[in-house]
Design goal:
The chain is of the alpha/beta class and about 300 residues long. About 35% of the residues lie in helices and about 25% in strands. It has two domains: about 240 residues, Aldolase class I (TIM Barrel), CATH 3.20.20.70; about 60 residues, Alpha-Beta Plaits (2-Layer Sandwich). β11, α9 and β12 form a beta-alpha-beta unit.
Length: about 300
């Protein structure tokens, strides 16, 4: 039975596909978007998080970590979580030693049966609302065999399936899984390959090619665009993306205005956040942006 590293199973979601849904978040992603709202999703392996506000500076974690590098924050002395391997037994003991639960591990290896059992607890809600299960990440297709087996098992139970993907994955793995799905949500970050690389670490050619094949295969595809200040929020970039999406046959686009809800997660991981303090966008800020796509014949909504 296939396994994957799961970092969250979110119940009663209304924004990740039709109806009431359970969202299964898998760790690991080939992109490094500097605005990522789930930075804990980027690495495949479990990671240690440190909640500074909960920490009382007792040092018990350090007693379990021989040779670990400690750093100071104000009057507190704590371990640099970015240097820790969550799979190490010493690290596990340090997490357990914290009396305030300021240290935690994000990500747990689960098999398909465990995830399926959790999802099926909400089967009545799926049936009443036309909902189902959405597999997300990170990039869920970092775990293609796990995703395929989970989708097949969900379909055996009559559950609607969706996937949120970057589409920057091996085409064979992409096709093998997406053609089983009822819906696919694909992120599009920028229409220019070099600008896409500057913002995400990868170019957009593979994403566009996979998107085109999914649409041609008859998959229900929704393209989603996270609109990020200073990166892709100009009408010029919108025009470029509308043209590229028209080329691959996309007919529906959802705009996702930038928000800073994930800012605190960078602190938990001991990482810097490039957009710290940046004000979020609202739909009314993007009326001209939306119009560019609508004028290109693409159904565009928030």
């Amino acid at each position: 039975m296939q396994t994957a590293t799961v970092f969250n199973i979110q119940k009663f979601s209304l924004n990740d596909g039709p109806g009431i849904r359970t969202v299964v978040f898998l760790k690991g992603c080939p992109l490094r978007c500097y605005w990522c709202s789930n930075p804990e999703s980027q690495v495949r392996e479990p990671q240690v998080e440190w909640n500074e506000r909960a920490c009382i500076g007792c040092g018990r974690c350090l007693e379990e970590l021989p040779g670990a590098r400690a750093i100071k924050t104000g009057s507190r002395r704590h371990v640099d979580v970015g240097t820790l391997d969550a799979r190490d037994e010493h690290v596990r003991r340090a997490v357990q030693a914290c009396p305030m639960r300021a240290l935690s591990v994000v990500g747990e290896t689960k098999d398909v049966e465990e995830v399926l059992e959790e999802c099926l607890k909400d089967l009545p809600f799926y049936r009443q609302s036309g909902g189902g299960v959405t597999i997300s990440g990170g990039e869920p297709l970092v775990w293609p065999d796990f995703c395929r087996e989970l989708v097949e098992r969900l379909h055996e139970e009559g559950v609607d399936t969706n996937m949120e993907t970057t589409a920057h994955v091996n085409p064979a793995a992409f096709d093998a899984v997406t053609r089983l799905l009822d819906h696919v949500y694909i992120d599009m970050k920028h229409g220019d390959a070099r600008a896409h690389r500057a913002g995400t670490g990868v170019e957009n050619d593979l994403i566009l090619a996979n998107t085109a094949r999914a649409i041609a295969a008859g998959t229900d595809v929704l393209v989603r665009i996270p609109v990020i200040p200073g990166f892709n929020d100009s009408v010029q970039v919108a025009g470029m993306m509308a043209a590229r999406l028209a080329e691959v046959g996309a007919t529906r686009v959802q705009l996702l205005p930038f928000h800073n809800f994930g800012e605190s997660k960078y602190d938990l991981l001991g990482r810097d956040y490039r957009l710290r303090g940046r004000k979020g966008l609202q739909p009314e800020d993007l009326e001209a942006y939306q119009k560019v796509f609508s004028d290109a014949g693409i159904d565009t909504f928030f």
